[in-house]
Sequence to fold (427 residues):
Amino acid sequence: MQVVKTRLLSILTLISLPVYAELPWQPIGVEDYLTTRPEAVELGRKLFADEILSGNRNISCQTCHHPDFGTADGLSLGLGEGAMGVGPEREANEGVRKRVPRHSPHLFNLGHKSVTEQFWDGRVSIDPQAPSGYDSPAESWLPHGLTSLSAVQATLPVTAQFEMAGNTGENEVIGAVRQRIDYAWPVIVERVIADDEYWKLISQAYPDLERRRDTDYTHLANAIGDYINSEFRSFNAPIDRLSRGEDIALTQMQRVGMELFYGKGQCGECHSGPLFTDGNYYSLALPPMGPGRTRQWDPWARDVGRMGVSNRAEDAYAFRVPSLRNLSFTAPYGHNGAYATLRAMIEHHNDPIRALESYDRSQAILPNAPHIEVIDWVGFADKRELERIKRSVDLQPLKLSDVEIDQILAFLKLLDEPELLARLQTR
Fold:
């Protein structure tokens, strides 16, 4: 499989634009997002930041999706349930048995109507043929009545051992998960509805509920989904003002960087549209760092990406193209956060095989955890695995110079919306 090389804008067209007032996509508006309800958003806001949803009551959704770190966690691979602190200062104790297998993705624009899949491997997706309307690891046990992909996503981390549920034997949530995944959600609901403040918020969000016990996890998940879909909308960056025809002053570096982005750099072929992603899956031969998200019968730590969902060999080591919105705030980069800087990530794109072979492990931002770090680099010890990763790569060397990379980086600044981050950090 090879990336189809179709140029979205010709260089001549770009040169003819005085301020690049035209872009190969239409401006985003509020109408392009799923509808949310203010009362549900407020309930979701509180749930998102509350440790009550975790098995041992020591981690929240916000721990790994924090506004101070661009709605991610500032780590290559996070430390889930049992660790202490937030971001790069987070510390593991002996109860943390492994790192979270993949880098925490940012949450921007997940409520955009064009988003039909979530997670690095797309394991949650809209599926009209499924009884619930969605495909997910919960399979037929997924609750019905979920109103968005973000709500579906909110059903899963609370049941995951290394993320929020905790280790076997530690609490009633993980105990229920070990019996059957859908047994865990009512346990969490019981905790929430016992709180009078929560019952007040639930009643406001769902006035049709007459009794606390009429609440189920669908109500909580939909509220979290509404919060994510409402509060993390990003469509007022300089690039958006430019798309609306506003007179935006661009530097020469940004002008040339845009030309490179949609031209020689081929960035716009995969990072296309207003969200700067085509939603597809490609292998970039990223360094095999961390424990990996292993399939059931995998005998060693590795991550085959999309193949783990599709079971197609051609999808091996392919991961979903991320949106480039607010890149300056969402480091590190890649499905396992292998690169601490955006420049290093672009340099990897520039020559994936060479970058893999010369990877500098100091790029990884990994909290100190001596009892689990032995597994961080085992992927590099397996020469056959490394060769399989190399053979899977979908991107040919781009031959960008250092100056051209600087110019692309200058253009990408136009995708940042610092005002949004500032608002999120003060709430």
Q: What stands out?
A: The first strand starts at residue 117 and ends at 118.
